[in-house]
Amino acid sequence: MKYVTEYRDAALVKGVIEEIRRTVTRPWTLMEICGGQTHAIVRHGIDQLLPPQIELVHGPGCPVCVTPLELIDKALSIAARPDVIFCSYGDMLRVPGSSRDLFSVKAQGGDVRVVYSPLDAVTLAEKNPDKQVVFFAIGFETTAPPNVMSVLQAQRLGLKNFSVLVSHVRVPPAMSAILNSPHNRVQGFLLAGHVNAIMGYWEYPPLLEKFKIPMVVTGFEPLDIVQGILKTVQLLEEGKVEVANAYQRAVTFEGLKPAQAAIHKVFMECDRKWRGIGMIPMSGWCLRPEFEEFNAEIRFDVESIHAEESPLCIAGEILQGLKKPHHCSAFGKQCTPENPLGATMVSSEGACAAYYKYGRNPQVLLAEK
Ligand code: SF4
């Protein structure tokens, strides 16, 4: 398949890894922002093929993982109501709330449906005027355009029975929070290429100015990832601080301006809580006041729900690059994909799930040392 097969070519990938080996002269810690990249790195064993000087730590870019526990509890509360059709992407159904998940609500008679587009939820609202239809609008910049389109479409159709439960997060403030931490270990970033496909990378030069570390827009196939790593290592070794683009087939500096305009028409920046990490100032998008009638939190009066995370789960430290999944005492014991304690074990993009699925367990890692 064009634009996929050639980016999975093992010989090309090995060639770039050899170039990384020739380039690196000292230890560097790099963070891949996106959970999709984490999954690809672990699945293809890229972390194990790199020279030992390069350590990859896994960032907070898995939308399912960082959706706060209390938002899940709010979703559960709304979905259990008899007058509601609750619509979500499939990967949210198994994410544990404080006491259950959306699958349990469905099993107990709640009308919870998996949709493939938020516009499917708008269609459901049109067809079911006697029901309240709610779409669980989570994600990073990548999923914001279709989510705001659903609100604009519902407004255009004059629907009074459609609303969105919003938990949108933005990459640049999360990077700021990681770099501002006194415990930060990250020396270079692989930026999340699909986020940059929408947003471009014009937001990153101010971060560069402030934190003086290189950033490289990186894709998701093995060749994309090793090319992103090579470019980051080259910049670090040369002492250069810049934002480079190693994913030029999909990303421009400006990004998709019409999509950005649609996002800013419906959303405004707001403080947002990240699961496992906590509040990050201005790291989210919320509905603008003129779209408040579509806000499910207000419509169903769930704003006051709060929740506490499991004390066993160290996902917050993993998502900031401070620890790896196998450092968690519950990994593979109390916490498995079948019985997840934290969201990084539920999502296929979560670092814990990737380590579990591809055998990065403590015994294997010890044996490798
Ligand atoms: S293994 Fe489970 S409990 Fe431990 S950090 Fe990962 S998700 Fe949390």
The SS-based structural class is: alpha/beta
Q: Which ligands occur here?
A: iron/sulfur cluster
Shape: globular
The CATH topology assignment of the largest domain is Rossmann fold
Q: Tell me the number of structural domains.
A: 3
Reading off the top of the CATH hierarchy, the class of the largest domain is best stated as Alpha Beta
Provide a count of the helices: 18
Q: Please provide the ordered H/E string of secondary-structure elements.
A: HEHHEHHEHEHEHEHEHHEHEHEEHHHHH
Proportion in β-strands:
15-25%
CATH architecture classification name of the largest domain: 3-Layer(aba) Sandwich
Number of strands: 11
Cα-to-Cα separation, first versus last residue:
38 Å
Average of per-residue pLDDT values: 92
* Low-confidence parts: 363-369
- The strand order across the widest sheet is 4-3-5-6-11-10
Largest sheet: 6 strands, mixed
CATH superfamily of the largest domain: HypD, alpha/beta domain 2
The proportion of residues forming helix, as a percent range, comes to 40-55%
User: Taking Cα atoms only, what radius of gyration do you get, to the nearest Å?
Assistant: 21 Å
